[in-house]
Amino acid sequence: xxxxxxxxxxxxxxxxxxxxxxxxxxxxxxxxxxxxxxxxxxxxxxxxxxxxxxxxxxxxxxxxxxxxxxxxxxxxxxxxxxxxxxxxxxxxxxxxxxxxxxxxxxxxxxxxxxxxxxxxxxxxxxxxxxxxxxxxxxxxxxxxxxxxxxxxxxxxxxxxxxxxxxxxxxxxxxxxxxxxxxxxxxxxxxxxxxxxxxxxxxxxxxxxxxxxxxxxxxxxxxxxxxxxxxxxxxxxxxxxxxxxxxxxxxxxxxxxxxxxxxxxxxxxxxxxxxxxxxxxxxxxxxxxxxxxxxxxxxxxxxxxxxxxxxxxxxxxxxxxxxxxxxxxxxxxxxxxxxxxxxxxxxxxxxxxxxxxxxxxxxxxxxxxxxxxxxxxxxxxxxxxxxxxxxxxxxxxxxxxxxxxxxxxxxxxxxxxxxxxxxxxxxxxxxxxxxxxxxxxxxxxxxxxxxxxxxxxxxxxxxxxxx
Length: 466
What we know:
By secondary structure, this protein is mainly alpha-helical. Helix content is about 75%, strand content about 0%.
C-alpha cells in the first residue's frame, strides 16, 4: 500500500493510512480479547523511568544515525552518545530502586523470558535488512519505482502470514526451541542469500530470497509466545510489552547501526569508483581534451552525489550531463589520436593514410608538371599531345580526393575514439555496480553472522527459572 501511495498520491498518506487500521484494530481487540490485569501494580506513572529511557534511546540512536553527517568526533555526536549511555545506566538504577517501576527488571531473571527477548531483539535488528536496506538498494541502485520495490519486498510479509501460525502449530507439538532456533538460522541464511544479489539478479530469485526471509521472521515471532510462558499471569501484560519493545528497540538500533555502516561502505565505494573512473579514462586512447573534460565531470558527479546522496534524480541528471559534456568534447578533431593498434579501425585508418599519402605525392608531381608544362609542350616530343589541357582538371580532382581522404581518416579516428569512450563508460558502470553491490553485501553478511552467532540463545527459550 505504501508503494501505491507513493506512486499515485502524496507520501504524507503513508502515515495517514495507519489511522483507519489502528481504529479497526482497537475495535477488534475490544471485542475479541479478554484483558488481564496486574493487581500488584500501582496506578502511579514512572515518569523518571519514561524520561531516562526515552532520552537514552534518542541519544544513542541519534548519535549512531547522524555520526557520518556531523562527524564522529563532533561535539554534538559525542555528547549525544555519552548522554544516551549515561541515562541508560541511570534508567537501570532507577528501575531497580523504585517501588513500582515501568520496567520490572526482575522479570529478566526468568531465562525463557530473557532469551526470548534477545531473540526478538535480534529479529528487529535483522528485519532492517530486507525492509529498509534492500529497499534502498532497489530504489537507489537499481532505480526501481517505489511500487516496484514494494512488490519485491511484500513476499516477506505475505510469507509471515503463513509461517507464523505454522510455527505456532509446530511449537505446540515440538516445543518453541526448535522454531525459535530454526527461525534464526533461516533468517541468517536468507541474509547470506541477499548478499549474493547483484544488479543483474532476476526478480524471481529476489522473490525467493524474500520468501525465505519471511519464513525465518515468522518462526522467530514464536518468541513472543514463549517469552511469557513461565511468567506470572499478572505480569503477562508487562512481559508482552517488554518483548514487543525489544523488537522496536532492535529495529531502531538496527537502522542506526546498519545504515551508518552502509553509508560508510558506500562512501568508501564512491571514493574507489571515482579514482577508478579517472584511471580508466586516463588509460583510454582518447584526446587530452576529452580526458580533461571527463576528469572534471567525474569530479562534479561525485561531489554532487556526496551532497545529495538521497536525491537519486539530481545524481542521475549529473550523470546525464557528464555524458553530454564528454560527447561534446569528443566531437573536437584537435588532438584526436590514432585508433588503438591491432584493431580493425587502426587497419582502416592506416590504409586510408596510405591512400592519402599516395594521392598527395601524385598531387605534388602534378604541381611540378604544371610548372614545367609550357616548356615541355614546346618540346618537339610533346607537341602532338592533345590532352595536356586536361591536366588542371586532374589536379583539381586529385586535390578534392586528398581533402576527402583526410576527412575520412579523421572520421575513422573519431569513430575509434567514440568506441573508446563507450568502453570507458561501460567499464566504469561495471566497476560501480560491483563496488556498490559489495557495500550492501557486507551489511547482509554482517547481519547474518550476528544472528547466526546469537542463534544458540534460542535454545534457552523454554527454560523455566528454578
